[in-house]
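Example 3.2
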Amino acid sequence: MSHNTSGPQRGIVCRFRAMPRSLGFALLAVPVTAAAVGTFGVLPATAQDARTQPVAQRSAHATATPASGPASATTAAKKPATRRADDTRPAEQDAGDKAGDKAGDDRRHGRDEDGDRHHGRHEKHTAEEALGAFFDAGYLYEDAVALKRAWHSRADVSDVKVRAGRKLLAGRDLPVDPSGTPATEQEIAERAALDAYLDAGYDSDDADLLALLWGPDTDAYEAKVLAGSKLLAGGEVPIEPGQTAWSVSDDAARAAYFNNGYDYADALVLADIWSGVDDLADVKANAGHKILDRLPLPGGVLPFDGDQGGAGQQAALDAYFAAGYDYDDAVALARVWGGIDPFDAKVMAGDKLITGIDLPVAA
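Structure, written as tokens:
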């Protein structure tokens, strides 16, 4: 019999024929194993696939009914891959788990659930505005500490106050109730006035000067509030930021003269002492600059303490009413001249009328 062999199979046949007959029959009884592959150098493709399969699959494959057709020996239909039971959760559940993980991460890093979404909107408020809102709402230091714990925040307590204030300004609620009393409308108005005062460039030195200008009944704090209130109402402050006692206007100096209790009669006395000053308006202005510089006036001239009368004051009042002005005009003039008392406004207005100076309010 002739065999048409080529390649690796021909090599096997040649080796087989060269062996002794007894050894050849013994080898025929040995199953093809990995050692045999190493000896003969060939292994069918199906045997290679079977060797790499698990034992359970090889047993099942061996007992399965062979498929018809020549292709079934080498190409088996692949079974569709199946997901594990825990991989069949809906996408919504996966998204929820991710959101929960993010919320936990936010809490660990001191961010609440809306911290990133509203961060830009909150940032439009300055730190000073946020702190004002925090305290105006009645929150205290211990509340900021409680908020820090509630937010799982590692930030400083001062930063927590700012963050809480910005939330309040944005109309959001806080997880901690205030332990203090919310600020009254007057306190909020004072805070707004102080902010306006500082925003305009005024400082504590300006407040001291304004307190002197507006009279002994006004302290530095009240001067800040009064000046800020004027600015918020669109009015003017009688001095500019950084001015001194001698750089303020003469009108401001004359206002300081009257606001500190000096009157027309005092101006006559000072005019006699300051012989070089003929105009009483200039006398009052010069005296006002000295008052703002905390210098005493010469000649023993003292401010009006409420018990003094004096012909000069009466003359100013007579000139005021003779020009057709009344109490309502005095109130308006007092507002223009920095919130002085209406009675002092009458005297000041009468003094101006006597010296020929027009008033900023018509009769």
